[in-house]
Amino acid sequence: MTRKELLAAAREHGTPVVVIDHAVVRRNYELFRRHLPNVQAYYAVKANPAPEIVRTLYEAGASFDVASLPEFLLVHRNIEHLPAKARQDYIWDKIIYANPIKPKETLEALNQYKPLLTYDNLDELKKIRRYAPNAGLVLRLRVPNTGSMVELSSKFGCDSGEAADLILEAFRLGMVVEGLSFHVGSQCTNFENFAQALNIAAAVREEAASRGGHRINIIDIGGGFPVPYDSHVKPFSALAKTINAQISRLFSKDVEILAEPGRFLVATAATVVARVIGKAFRDGRTCYYIDDSVYHTYSGIIFDHCQYRVNSFRKGRAELCTVFGQTCDGMDTITHSEALPELRIGDLVFSGSIGAYSNASSTFFNGFSPAKVVHINEARTAMISSIAR
Ligand SMILES: *Cc1c(COP(=O)(O)O)cnc(C)c1O
């Protein structure tokens, strides 16, 4: 996204505006596929559930990881044109419902689709048996999350010691465990997590075979693939090398490997442009107030433990300053240490790599609406193709 394009979007649509470049989404998907050619990518829709992004990734050949009934239906819409039989054959290839905990109403609604569902405990297994008996199962394992930006292992995943029991129990209840899954934590920059998790999965798979004679043919390596938010993040090719080496050492060729990349596919595709609406001098620093907030596009600062750079379009000698959001909450602070040239009220600023866990969590707090979202999709139209709130 060039500065000229960002300025044009702000001029045309006002601020705040989130500009999503679908060429970058496609490029990220291709990068993932190139380095992990034997891994099918199930895009984790929660990272950015814009239907336009789901469409672009569907057309690129991606599958999807969903975590709620609305997310399931959002993806399913894309395969409704297929004949019923094909749709059914297709569903596991295209969708995994990867939230280990599901309300019974959701299970009842999903049952007709014969979905692939994750579970990680006995109560959930019994609930699935009762309300979605047609489902196929994937057991979510608890794996080390050391050094990941967002930790998930305290909430989900069974311990490896109880995994085989949960698999055997599922088969005893007449269900089929098709796979094992894990999540190493989001924005995982400690690649050792993936190696350890793959080894845990391989051990559980062997135990299920030796104790119950059950062959588990799907290994779902989850999400966590890191985005280069800063220069400390090692390249994706290095992570892919680790993963590929472990996979070929631990699993035979007939084991299907899937992954659930979320932020990796969408984070770098979006940029937000906001406007300086106020200015003050406090605690020895110039403070700028912009027309977006941590309750809106910058929600990742709170929920995703992510820090975004704020950039200016104006040139000049930079000075450390504070940038606040527009709401009345003191917590609504974008940064206390950004180097910016002297800005004027009305100036525009922008933050890149803000496509994941960002505007999707926007609220209407304080009466401020979420930013407009503009999709730039060169493949379909020559210009800005759709606008949504
Ligand atoms: C959130 C989530 C993902 C995506 O994680 P990223 O770190 O964004 O890649 C994948 N799988 C599951 C089960 C998740 O909860």
Q: For the residues shown, what is the average pLDDT? A: 95
The helix tally amounts to 12
Can you identify the CATH superfamily of the largest domain? Alanine racemase
CATH topology descriptor of the largest domain: TIM Barrel
Outline: elongated
Give the termini distance in whole angstroms: 21 Å
Largest sheet composition? 9 strands, mixed
**What amount of the residues lies in strands?**
15-25%
CATH class of the largest domain: Alpha Beta
Write up this protein.
The chain has 389 residues and is α/β, with parallel strands linked by helices. It contains twelve helices and 19 strands. The chain has two domains: 137 residues, Lyase, Ornithine Decarboxylase, Chain A, domain 1 (Beta Barrel); 245 residues, TIM Barrel, CATH 3.20.20.10. It is 33% helix and 24% strand. The longest helix has 21 residues. The C terminus is likely disordered. The site of pyridoxal-5'-phosphate has 16 residues, from helix 11.
What layout of secondary structure does this protein have?
Elements: H1 3-13, E1 17-21, H2 22-35, E2 39-44, H3 51-60, E3 63-66, H4 69-76, H5 84-94, E4 95-97, H6 104-111, E5 116-119, H7 122-131, E6 136-140, E7 148-150, H8 160-172, E8 177-181, E9 186-188, H9 192-212, E10 218-220, H10 236-250, E11 256-259, H11 263-266, E12 270-282, E13 285-290, H12 300-303, E14 311-312, E15 319-324, E16 333-340, E17 348-351, E18 372-376, E19 384-388
Parallel strand pairs: 1-18, 2-3, 2-11, 3-4, 5-6, 6-8, 8-10, 10-11, 13-15
Antiparallel strand pairs: 1-12, 7-9, 12-13, 12-17, 14-17, 15-16, 18-19
Helix pairs in contact: 2-3, 8-9, 9-10
